[in-house]
Amino acid sequence: MSARKKNFGRRLPPKPPKIITNAPDGLSNGSGLKGVKRSEWIALGVLGASVLGVFAVAEGVNQHTECSPPPQASALNTADSSANCRSSGSSHGGGGGGWGGWGSKGSSSSGAHFGGFGAAGGGHGGGGGE
Amino acid sequence: MRRMQSKPRADLTAQFEQIGFRYANIDGAVYWDESVRYEFSMGEIETIETATEELAGLSSDLVDRIVASEALLTTLQIPTHAWDLIAESWKRRDASLYGRFDFAYEEAQPPKLLEYNADTPTSLFEASVVQWFWLEQLIARGDLPKGSDQFNSLHEKLIARWGTMASLPFVHLACQTDYVEDLSTVEYLADCANQAGLQSAVIGMEDIGLKGQGFVDRSGRAVNSLFKLYPWEWMLADEFGKSEAMHHTRFIEPPWKMLLSNKGILALLWEQEPNHPNLLPCYFEREHEANTMGKRYARKPLFSREGNNIELVDGNQSIVGLNGGYGAEGFIRQQLCMLPNFAGYFPVIGSWVVGEEAAGMSIREDCSPITSNLARFIPHVITGDD
User: Would B320 disulfide with which of A62, A122, B17, B74, CB 3.0-4.6 Å?
Assistant: First the structure.
């Protein structure tokens, strides 16, 4: 190995990202985003006991089953995990939702035409990340 | 590689709020899980690092091959209207910012490449920042030994990489802003760009407008350089994807990266480097050789995300990922390589590259052998030398 491996432990002085102050809608201190209220965010931070949906090995079919709540949740001694099952169809960031309606935004006073990007993601039930 | 119980910090909410981590839980389910951790030796990390840089190099070689071959572009189902765009970007060697190789890894075995998330990888902020602060705080509190380390120089390397893009004094970063993970990823990357001296603006994909032969934002500012956390295949399918403005915009990730985000490269890499220790035998499904794997393979769409429409076949048993509507462009078959099973949890190694340099690692763990968007992020630590 090259000596570069030693760099793993030599980081620049920690510098928290400034995204906190750049949050949309004028929110600050991680207080939330569009669609995520501050109260929800705080709750999500500690109360999220939940159950993951999984597929069990099965002959030629996929079966939706349940698995036990993550131990972190019980360690935090908070919510009733049995009430927080997530359906197999849900996804991080919410379901599909679609990106229709671009035409409604139309043209701007600058003469630019908007809405030509974003439509293809609507049918895939999640964000564009992977 | 060991999976260990770990004591969660008592003040998680305050910690996350301080660093702006807004999706520790998603849809009411735990995403960030520090009740466990994975421990690695430095030797294991070096093995993963070496494999990562080796595959990054092989991937570049492969782009060279594909760009020069209309047959391969066709095989990968790349739309013809994108061929020139790709070739131009490769000829200029437009800079790539980052990517993530996903490996199946077991102790004493070479990491095996499952896929390369070359276009729109996420889990970056938690890999770069959140798990680093976790490490520092556990060491400070005596819950990890002093000298514990982490495979993680993402933050520094991202800033340095942006710094090499100084010819782009202003960069727009766009995503589907309704998705908190995506928005946080681009906000974090914008911050790294700012720290490198670039100016930036975070916008929604819908906030990109077409004016004449260029793109503009809603304030009328020209979009000359665009980081987009939005898949290339979607870009090309959208109305603006065929516009002349595509040729007048510098994209990050550049158009040539769309070749590497295609799972068809797993077959092409195997063809290029048969028996490479970090690759699995892999063929396009329509090829005769695909049948040589018998009934033990992973079937993957050329375009797919979050494990959608992936099928693991083992004899008469199979596991199928969620239906995300992928698969119309065809499939590959890759020799089945199951993720290691730690008491019902299946961790996948995400090994990051910035440019072509290995830069860090993230681990996502699912209770299915197919890593889906339900997987949880588990922090890791390097504890020993061997």
Answer: A62
